Amino acid sequence: MEDKNVLREFKIKGLMMDPVTNSPIVILQDIEETTLLPIWVDIFQANAIALQIERIDPPRPMTHDLLKNVIFHLGGQIEKIVLTELRKSTFFAVIHLHVDGNPTLLDSRPSDAIALALRTDAPIFVTEEVIAGSRSLTLDQGKLDPENVRDWLENLNPEDLGEYKM
Prior knowledge:
By secondary structure, the protein is α+β, with helices and mostly antiparallel strands.
């Protein structure tokens, strides 16, 4: 039996717009390239994530840049972010950081945690329990069939997945 608390590392595969709801979706892919995980986010977090993916520096610090700067200024370091839970179609995340050598956990929306992870080069992890509870797509390693991925993306339904909620 697989341990549901085991962590798998993911990277951002890309951003896309849900053609039905017109909401942004962050697509995460595990580092073994066997699983895709969609997460609905709001437009502001999608913008913050997109700017960092494209390596665009805004003229003034955005909220996630400010948070990164405050953490670093206070002697903190982001260790990792973890998507820990999926409850009623809502993902939950925790930011693991150290301040003066003391470990600290911060509750976070996944979109904010991902935006912060991108700015600090912190790894993104997802629990096996979250993966099992989501409508992720499992791929044959090394056999990413664009047609299968396209069909999967077109049939995504935010009610079945972790959509963005305040």
